[in-house]
Amino acid sequence: MRLLLVEDDPDLASITRADLVRAGFAVDMADNGIDGEHLGSHEPYDAIILDLGLPGRPGLDVLKSWRERDNRVPVIVLTARDQWFERVDGFKAGADDYLGKPFHIEELIARLRALIHREHGRSANTLETASVRLDEDLQQVQVGDDQAHELTGTEFRLLRYMMLNSGKILSKSNLSDHVYDQNSERDSNLIEVYVRRLREKIGAQMILTKRGQGYVFNDPSR
Ligand code: CA
Prior knowledge:
Elements (H helix, E strand, L loop, with lengths): L1 E5 L3 H13 L3 E5 L2 H10 L4 E5 L7 H10 L6 E6 L3 H9 L4 E5 L3 H15 L7 E2 L3 E4 L4 E4 L5 E2 L2 H12 L7 H8 L8 H15 L4 E4 L3 E4 L5
Parallel strand pairs: 1-2, 1-3, 3-4, 4-5
Antiparallel strand pairs: 6-7, 7-8, 8-9, 10-11
The structure holds calcium ion.
Calcium ion binds next to loops.
Protein backbone atom coordinates (compact mmCIF):
# COMPACT_ATOMS: atom_id res chain seq x y z
CA MET A 1 0.00 0.00 0.00
CA ARG A 2 1.34 3.37 -0.98
CA LEU A 3 0.36 6.51 0.90
CA LEU A 4 0.74 10.25 0.49
CA LEU A 5 1.30 12.26 3.65
CA VAL A 6 0.61 16.00 3.19
CA GLU A 7 1.83 17.73 6.35
CA ASP A 8 3.84 20.93 6.77
CA ASP A 9 5.12 20.36 10.31
CA PRO A 10 8.54 18.82 9.53
CA ASP A 11 8.94 16.98 12.84
CA LEU A 12 5.45 15.52 12.81
CA ALA A 13 5.82 14.57 9.14
CA SER A 14 9.11 12.75 9.54
CA ILE A 15 8.09 10.87 12.71
CA THR A 16 4.75 9.87 11.16
CA ARG A 17 6.41 8.75 7.94
CA ALA A 18 8.93 6.59 9.82
CA ASP A 19 6.14 4.95 11.83
CA LEU A 20 4.07 4.30 8.70
CA VAL A 21 7.04 2.79 6.88
CA ARG A 22 7.66 0.51 9.87
CA ALA A 23 3.99 -0.49 9.70
CA GLY A 24 4.51 -1.65 6.11
CA PHE A 25 3.45 1.30 3.97
CA ALA A 26 5.37 2.98 1.14
CA VAL A 27 5.04 6.71 1.90
CA ASP A 28 5.50 9.84 -0.24
CA MET A 29 5.47 13.25 1.38
CA ALA A 30 4.48 16.81 0.50
CA ASP A 31 4.95 19.78 2.84
CA ASN A 32 2.55 22.17 1.08
CA GLY A 33 -0.85 22.15 -0.60
CA ILE A 34 0.38 22.73 -4.15
CA ASP A 35 2.77 19.78 -4.27
CA GLY A 36 0.30 17.67 -2.32
CA GLU A 37 -2.49 18.36 -4.80
CA HIS A 38 -0.20 17.57 -7.74
CA LEU A 39 1.07 14.28 -6.31
CA GLY A 40 -2.41 13.22 -5.24
CA SER A 41 -3.70 13.88 -8.77
CA HIS A 42 -0.95 12.01 -10.60
CA GLU A 43 0.21 9.10 -8.45
CA PRO A 44 -1.90 6.02 -7.70
CA TYR A 45 -2.10 6.23 -3.90
CA ASP A 46 -4.04 3.73 -1.83
CA ALA A 47 -4.87 6.44 0.71
CA ILE A 48 -3.90 10.04 1.53
CA ILE A 49 -3.38 11.68 4.92
CA LEU A 50 -4.09 15.37 4.51
CA ASP A 51 -3.42 18.16 6.99
CA LEU A 52 -5.90 21.03 6.59
CA GLY A 53 -3.67 23.96 7.57
CA LEU A 54 -1.07 23.99 4.78
CA PRO A 55 1.07 26.64 3.08
CA GLY A 56 0.51 27.19 -0.65
CA ARG A 57 -3.04 25.88 -0.78
CA PRO A 58 -5.38 24.99 2.12
CA GLY A 59 -6.05 21.29 2.62
CA LEU A 60 -9.80 21.73 2.11
CA ASP A 61 -9.24 23.29 -1.33
CA VAL A 62 -6.85 20.49 -2.24
CA LEU A 63 -9.43 17.88 -1.27
CA LYS A 64 -12.27 19.69 -3.10
CA SER A 65 -10.19 19.90 -6.24
CA TRP A 66 -9.45 16.15 -6.19
CA ARG A 67 -13.13 15.33 -5.72
CA GLU A 68 -14.22 17.78 -8.45
CA ARG A 69 -11.97 15.87 -10.84
CA ASP A 70 -13.51 12.60 -9.65
CA ASN A 71 -10.40 11.45 -7.81
CA ARG A 72 -11.93 9.06 -5.28
CA VAL A 73 -8.77 8.12 -3.38
CA PRO A 74 -9.55 7.50 0.33
CA VAL A 75 -8.57 10.59 2.37
CA ILE A 76 -8.09 11.00 6.12
CA VAL A 77 -7.93 14.65 7.16
CA LEU A 78 -5.92 15.81 10.16
CA THR A 79 -7.85 18.40 12.15
CA ALA A 80 -7.30 20.40 15.34
CA ARG A 81 -8.58 18.29 18.24
CA ASP A 82 -11.34 20.61 19.47
CA GLN A 83 -12.40 22.17 16.17
CA TRP A 84 -15.56 20.18 15.40
CA PHE A 85 -16.45 22.46 12.48
CA GLU A 86 -13.18 21.53 10.74
CA ARG A 87 -14.31 17.94 10.77
CA VAL A 88 -17.70 18.89 9.31
CA ASP A 89 -16.01 20.96 6.59
CA GLY A 90 -13.67 18.06 5.89
CA PHE A 91 -16.52 15.60 5.39
CA LYS A 92 -18.42 18.09 3.23
CA ALA A 93 -15.33 18.46 1.04
CA GLY A 94 -15.18 14.70 0.55
CA ALA A 95 -13.03 13.30 3.38
CA ASP A 96 -13.56 9.64 4.29
CA ASP A 97 -12.34 9.94 7.86
CA TYR A 98 -10.60 12.37 10.20
CA LEU A 99 -8.14 12.30 13.04
CA GLY A 100 -7.68 15.11 15.61
CA LYS A 101 -4.17 16.33 16.39
CA PRO A 102 -2.26 15.29 18.37
CA PHE A 103 -2.96 11.67 17.49
CA HIS A 104 -1.55 8.29 18.37
CA ILE A 105 0.11 6.57 15.43
CA GLU A 106 -1.67 3.32 16.31
CA GLU A 107 -5.00 5.04 15.73
CA LEU A 108 -3.89 6.44 12.38
CA ILE A 109 -2.69 2.99 11.27
CA ALA A 110 -5.93 1.33 12.41
CA ARG A 111 -8.02 3.91 10.53
CA LEU A 112 -5.91 3.58 7.38
CA ARG A 113 -6.23 -0.18 7.48
CA ALA A 114 -10.00 -0.04 7.95
CA LEU A 115 -10.35 2.49 5.14
CA ILE A 116 -8.20 0.50 2.71
CA HIS A 117 -9.92 -2.81 3.53
CA ARG A 118 -13.33 -1.19 3.03
CA GLU A 119 -12.15 0.30 -0.28
CA HIS A 120 -11.37 -3.24 -1.43
CA GLY A 121 -14.77 -4.53 -0.35
CA ARG A 122 -13.62 -6.34 2.76
CA SER A 123 -15.63 -6.00 5.91
CA ALA A 124 -13.28 -7.98 8.15
CA ASN A 125 -10.17 -6.33 9.49
CA THR A 126 -7.99 -9.35 8.77
CA LEU A 127 -6.53 -10.55 5.50
CA GLU A 128 -7.07 -14.25 5.02
CA THR A 129 -8.05 -16.71 2.36
CA ALA A 130 -9.01 -20.36 2.70
CA SER A 131 -5.41 -21.29 3.49
CA VAL A 132 -3.29 -18.12 3.82
CA ARG A 133 -3.47 -15.71 6.75
CA LEU A 134 -1.54 -12.43 6.76
CA ASP A 135 -0.88 -10.85 10.15
CA GLU A 136 -0.61 -7.14 9.39
CA ASP A 137 0.66 -6.25 12.87
CA LEU A 138 3.46 -8.79 12.99
CA GLN A 139 4.05 -8.77 9.21
CA GLN A 140 3.97 -12.56 9.18
CA VAL A 141 2.19 -15.01 6.90
CA GLN A 142 0.79 -18.37 7.91
CA VAL A 143 -0.30 -21.16 5.58
CA GLY A 144 -2.80 -23.61 7.08
CA ASP A 145 -1.55 -24.78 10.44
CA ASP A 146 2.13 -24.41 9.48
CA GLN A 147 4.51 -22.22 11.39
CA ALA A 148 4.23 -18.51 10.52
CA HIS A 149 6.88 -17.01 8.21
CA GLU A 150 8.45 -13.63 8.82
CA LEU A 151 8.22 -11.31 5.81
CA THR A 152 10.69 -8.61 4.77
CA GLY A 153 9.30 -5.11 4.23
CA THR A 154 8.95 -5.50 0.46
CA GLU A 155 7.55 -9.04 0.71
CA PHE A 156 4.93 -7.80 3.16
CA ARG A 157 3.90 -4.80 1.05
CA LEU A 158 3.68 -6.98 -2.06
CA LEU A 159 1.69 -9.77 -0.44
CA ARG A 160 -0.73 -7.39 1.26
CA TYR A 161 -1.43 -5.58 -2.01
CA MET A 162 -1.89 -8.87 -3.89
CA MET A 163 -4.21 -10.31 -1.23
CA LEU A 164 -6.34 -7.15 -1.15
CA ASN A 165 -6.64 -7.42 -4.92
CA SER A 166 -7.00 -11.20 -5.11
CA GLY A 167 -8.48 -12.52 -8.31
CA LYS A 168 -7.35 -9.47 -10.32
CA ILE A 169 -4.51 -9.49 -12.82
CA LEU A 170 -1.79 -7.21 -11.48
CA SER A 171 0.93 -6.07 -13.87
CA LYS A 172 4.49 -5.67 -12.65
CA SER A 173 4.29 -1.89 -13.09
CA ASN A 174 1.02 -1.74 -11.15
CA LEU A 175 2.66 -3.74 -8.35
CA SER A 176 5.73 -1.45 -8.36
CA ASP A 177 3.44 1.58 -8.14
CA HIS A 178 1.83 0.31 -4.95
CA VAL A 179 4.83 -1.34 -3.28
CA TYR A 180 7.49 1.35 -3.68
CA ASP A 181 7.52 5.07 -2.87
CA GLN A 182 8.43 7.59 -5.57
CA ASN A 183 12.08 7.79 -4.50
CA SER A 184 12.71 4.06 -4.70
CA GLU A 185 14.49 2.39 -7.56
CA ARG A 186 11.66 1.01 -9.75
CA ASP A 187 12.91 -2.14 -11.40
CA SER A 188 10.03 -4.38 -12.40
CA ASN A 189 12.44 -7.37 -12.54
CA LEU A 190 12.67 -6.97 -8.78
CA ILE A 191 8.97 -7.75 -8.56
CA GLU A 192 9.73 -11.14 -10.16
CA VAL A 193 12.36 -11.80 -7.50
CA TYR A 194 9.93 -10.97 -4.68
CA VAL A 195 7.12 -13.01 -6.21
CA ARG A 196 9.49 -15.99 -6.32
CA ARG A 197 10.33 -15.49 -2.63
CA LEU A 198 6.66 -15.24 -1.69
CA ARG A 199 5.90 -18.43 -3.61
CA GLU A 200 8.58 -20.20 -1.58
CA LYS A 201 6.83 -19.09 1.61
CA ILE A 202 3.15 -19.58 0.73
CA GLY A 203 3.23 -22.14 -2.08
CA ALA A 204 3.67 -21.60 -5.82
CA GLN A 205 0.00 -22.29 -6.57
CA MET A 206 -1.10 -19.20 -4.60
CA ILE A 207 0.36 -16.73 -7.11
CA LEU A 208 -0.42 -17.47 -10.75
CA THR A 209 1.51 -16.01 -13.68
CA LYS A 210 -0.55 -14.60 -16.54
CA ARG A 211 1.92 -14.53 -19.38
CA GLY A 212 2.60 -11.02 -20.68
CA GLN A 213 0.07 -9.55 -18.26
CA GLY A 214 1.21 -10.06 -14.70
CA TYR A 215 0.24 -12.02 -11.63
CA VAL A 216 -2.97 -13.08 -9.90
CA PHE A 217 -3.27 -13.92 -6.22
CA ASN A 218 -5.26 -17.14 -6.33
CA ASP A 219 -7.97 -17.06 -3.68
CA PRO A 220 -10.57 -19.76 -4.37
CA SER A 221 -12.83 -18.33 -1.65
CA ARG A 222 -13.45 -15.07 -3.52
CA1 CA B 1 -0.37 22.41 9.32
